[in-house]
Amino acid sequence: MIRFENVSVTYADAEKPALHGVDFVVDEGEMVLVMGRTGSGKSTLLRTINGLVPHFSGGTLRGRVTVDGRSTETHRPRDLADVVGFVGQDPLAGFITDNVEDELAYGMESLGLSQTTMRRRVEETLDLLGLADLRGRPLTHLSGGQQQRVAIGAVLTAHPRVLVLDEPTSALDPLSAEDVLATLQRLVHDLGMTVIVAEHRLERVVPHVDRIIHVPDQGGPVEIGEPAEIMARTPIAPPVVDLGRAAGWSPLPLTVRNARRMSVSLRERLATVTPPAHQPPQLGDMVGTAHDLVAGFPRQPVLNGIDLMIRAGEVVALMGRNGAGKSTLMRTLVGLHKPTHGKVQAVQVGLVPQVPADLLYAATVAKECATSDRDAGAPAGTTRALVDELAPEIPDDRHPRDLSEGQKLCLTLAIVLAARPKLLLLDEPTRGLDYIAKHRLVEILADLSTRGHGIMLATHDVELVAELATRVVLLGDGEIVADGPVPEVVVSSPAFAPQVAKVMAPQEWLTVADIRAALDGQ
């Protein structure tokens, strides 16, 4: 179905190719994961499948890419639209219409399908992706996760034979992500669709795929193989695989179910060891409060009577399903959204939005960093040093809009962190970040909290919460339904528990690092 023959892609003025010597074949009815470090070339690889690279991105493509027998050299993206459906990392940027139902129908209108067929497929897709209650909702009023599901649905209604998705679960809560992945599996198994997915949250996707394409950084050769084969030799791995390495299991488990079966002796070995519970942080002054807060859209409140306090020195994870009100709460705290009722107080707040590019305006990365240093009153080079910690090797002369989504996030994080705000708000901060970049982010945020900054993360990344947060606030339909220490809230939750907690339950272990330290101490 998809064939790459010695494919290389080089962008203008780039010192090295974004992809080099790529050879592989993906058969009909396969679900394949594309994995690799932030900026390794995953998005470039995906965009060569429907001809966006090089027809719209520029650069030079050498070699040959064919999809269902059609060469992307002679077929532009519009000529492949009936075969390849593509969903990018930023759904809002790809929307054409104003509301959910119209967006689902637009692609079919372009293909000239009948009204009867369009109506049937829209209804099927609304049910398939759990969007029926949102059918008339304006797209700008949806949460990031809801927008992502609409973007996927808009592609599915055209019934393509190949579906290409760039970070499809990055803005989805755990249950919504499982629903989307289960839907993709049904499309593969029941309809014979070929699905190519690029994703950093490997713990979600690896159990569902048939094969993995690993795109290494530094221009190394691209590998393709069975999940177990790739996981055995790559340093990038989900927590359940890392746990298997720490415990010395062979073969390495790829699912929580398999790890649970293999963990009997490990659980017995650690039964008398007390898990390192999150120590209460040294709390300082209040940096943010909300009292009886009501906020949302006209005649449609999103938050209902929120009471919340954030102190310096704590890391608060704001969790809940898509549409629960997490982003609205953050935007209200920073002053971008006016409360309908109640009171909000916050001092020196910095917000990293869900779409990082909203804060990027300069023509080069170097100019963004220099402007950030000047605006923050920080020594020259401060922002650039933070960028290098999060995502090394982003060139100074690169236009920020030409960076990968993960690199844009790293640059935006650095710009906001340079000002060292007393209260730092981050909306889905690990979206687009690989495990190594995420670990660097955890170190930076942990350091900020120990220096007396208050931090709130709106996130669906349960592994990040386990590693970094000291407290979890769980939202449900605009109300706080749980507020407490991380182990107390997440370990007993089927939806929000990290992989290690699921494997080791009822023991309250949260991370592989904790288990590795306990084993080393025995």
Automatic annotation (TrEMBL):
Gene3D superfamilies: P-loop containing nucleotide triphosphate hydrolases. GO terms for cellular component: ATP-binding cassette (ABC) transporter complex. Keywords: ATP-binding, Cell membrane, Hydrolase, Membrane, Nucleotide-binding, Repeat, Translocase, Transport. PROSITE patterns: ABC_TRANSPORTER_1, ABC_TRANSPORTER_2. It is a peripheral membrane protein. Pfam families: ABC_tran. The keyword Lyase does not apply. It is found in: Cell membrane. Its main location: membrane. GO terms for molecular function: ATP binding; ATP hydrolysis activity; ATPase-coupled transmembrane transporter activity. Residues 2-243, 281-502 form the ABC transporter domain. Its EC number is 3.6.3.-. InterPro entries: AAA+_ATPase (IPR003593), ABC_transporter-like_ATP-bd (IPR003439), ABC_transporter-like_CS (IPR017871), ABC_transpr_CbiO/EcfA_su (IPR015856), ECF_ABC_transporter_ATP-bd (IPR050095), P-loop_NTPase (IPR027417). It is an enzyme of class 3 (hydrolase). Probably part of an ABC transporter complex. Responsible for energy coupling to the transport system. Belongs to the ABC transporter superfamily. PANTHER family: ENERGY-COUPLING FACTOR TRANSPORTER ATP-BINDING PROTEIN ECFA1 (PTHR43553:SF24), HEAVY METAL TRANSPORTER (PTHR43553). This is Energy-coupling factor transport system ATP-binding protein. It comes from Nocardioides daedukensis. The lineage of its organism: Bacteria, Bacillati, Actinomycetota, Actinomycetes, Propionibacteriales.
